[in-house]
Amino acid sequence: MDYQIGFFYLFAAVLLYAAFRVITARNPVVAVLHLMLAFSQAAALWLLIQAEFLGLTLVLVYLGAVMVLFLFVVMMLDIKLAGERWSFWQHFPLAAVLGAVVAMQIIAVLWLGFPNVTAPAVPAELANASNTKSLGVLLYTEYLYPIEVAAVILLVAMIAAIALTLRQRKDSKAINPGVQVQVRASDRLTVLPMSATQKPAALPAASEEGKA
Question: What is the mean pLDDT of residues 9-22?
């Protein structure tokens, strides 16, 4: 057996185990950690089929940014787990049906393949180039306008998220540090002149009659 096939079975087995633990772990932190493991094994499988750009993108984007952010958010939320809320067998029939459908699709693809699909023609200047260079040339030539539209949509979404986050709230108790530093003692403390002792107030006449 070739060493590449051995690595494929190893990465695939770990990937299946990590994916199974993602949906069965009761602790969200454990589920996120197994999801990160699944992404790393998927990136290794991409590298085995010489798709270096996709593998590195999966590691940098998902493992390096998205999943780390998810992990910190889940750990900072301090989620309280309730035992009665978790029921594996309650959703098992639906999960089994969906899993069987996905497995049948994968078997059909591996067994029949894609008979009506032909490989695209590769230009002569990219025949010996890496897949990363080929992908870059394809994205910025044939698919240039869709990429620009997607970039504009992402930019608008980012600006909208910042605008919604930075709006002024009336119920906010935030303090401006510049104003807080410029405050003087006389602005915070007011000394009122008061006598040391005061005479008690006279009782009303009605209360005196009631006592009598």
Answer: 90
